[in-house]
Specification:
The structure is a single chain. The protein has 120 residues and is mainly α. The protein contains 6 helices and no strands.
Amino acid sequence: MLFVLTLGAVLAATTTTGELRPSLSGMRSYLGGFADPAYVIDGFGTSREKIANLGLFLPLGLLAARLWPRPFVVLAALAALAFGIELWQAFIGRGGDAVDVLHNTVGALVGIGIARLWRR
């Protein structure tokens, strides 16, 4: 139940907007960000927003890894969720960013690591 509440909070915080401005051009620039690895990796964890993106998916990784014992499947699912959230943000005009996908995925990975240590 805690996982579902956490997932709901993450989705509410990341997939809503005050003013809906759907646009395919935002999606194009978001997807183009993945074509430049230097852009995605540059400045890893250098701002509060980037650190917040790490922290956003850490509890999801921790709780999901406690529920499902296959860490690679959990990581892949959470990375796909991060990708989908950012794609949706790009579509609704919130400016999805490829860098956020990396930070969310690393946050999930840290959460999974903590869950694995907890099991031991």
